[in-house]
Amino acid sequence: MVQIDDVIVSLDVFREKFVCNLDACKGECCIEGDAGAPVELEEVEKLEEVLPVIWDELSPEARAVIDKQGVVYTDSEGDLVTSIVNGKDCVFTCYDDKGYCYCAIEKAYREGRCNFYKPVSCHLYPIRVGDYGPYKAVNYHRWDVCKAAVLLGKKENVPVYKFLKEPLIRKFGEAWYAELENVAEELEKQHII
C-alpha cells in the first residue's frame, strides 16, 4: 500500500490490468449483485434532479420502486446505495436493442441532457473507496462478472489506475492523480509493480 495525502492506495490498483469489455459482459455489473451501487450523500440530490430527464427511459418496475422508496436506500451493511429492482438490477439501468444494459444517467449526460455523469462509485468501478475516519482506502475489487475486462486489460497492458484516470481525477483531483502517476513510476523503477 502507498499513501497519497489522506488516501491509502492498494498496490493492486497499480499491478492489476483492466479494460471494460462491454461486448463480452453487456454491462452485467449494473444488474448483478446483492445491493445497489454505493452513493455519496451529496449525490442523492443530483440523482433526484436528473429523474425528470430520464424517467421515460426507466422500466415501469424501476419507476415503481423509486415512487415507493426513492432513488437510494440503506443496505444491510448500513451503506447508502442506489435502489434496485428484482433484488439486483440498479433502477437506473436500461437496455439497448442488442440487449446491452447501460446507465440512463450516463446516457443523458453524454447526450448533453444533464450535467451529472453518474454516481462516482459506478464511474470508479472496479475501484472501491472505503472511508476510515480521516483516511480513504482505494482498493481494486475483483468480481467474476469482469473476467473479460481483466483479460482485455492484460492483452492491452492497461493498469487499473490508468483505465480509471478520469474518475480518479473526478474523485480526488488532478494534483492527486499526478502524484499517483509519480508513485507508479517510482514503484516500477523499484520493480515493486
Question: What is the structure about, briefly put?
Answer:
The chain has helices at 12-15, 22-25, 41-54, 60-69, 104-110, 120-124, 147-156, 160-163, 165-172, 174-189; strands spanning 2-4, 7-9, 72-74, 80-82, 84-85, 89-90, 93-95, 101-103, 127-132, 135-140. The chain has 193 residues and is of the alpha+beta class.
Hey, roughly how much beta strand do the residues contain?
A: 15-25%
End-to-end separation: 11 Å
Q: What is the H/E order?
A: EEHHHHEEEEEEHHEEHHHH
Overall form: globular
Overall strand count: 10
Number of helices: 10
In round numbers, the mean pLDDT is: 93
| Class based on secondary structure composition and strand pairing | alpha+beta
Count of separate structural domains: 2
Order of the strands making up the biggest sheet: 1-2-10-9
Percent helix among the residues?
40-55%
Main beta sheet strand tally, sense and closure? 4 strands, mixed
Rounded to the nearest angstrom, the radius of gyration is 17 Å
> Unreliable runs, pLDDT <50, ≥5 residues?
none
What does this structure look like?
The chain is an alpha+beta fold and 193 residues long. The chain has two domains: 86 residues, no CATH class; 91 residues, no CATH class. Helix content is 42%, strand content 18%. The chain contains ten helices and ten strands. The strands form four sheets. It has a four-stranded mixed beta sheet, covered by helices on one side. Strands 3-4 form a two-stranded antiparallel ribbon. A two-stranded antiparallel ribbon has the order 5-6. Strand 1 and strand 2 form a beta hairpin. Helix 9 packs across helix 10. The longest helix is centred in the last third of the chain and has 16 residues. The protein is globular. The N and C termini lie close together (11 Å).
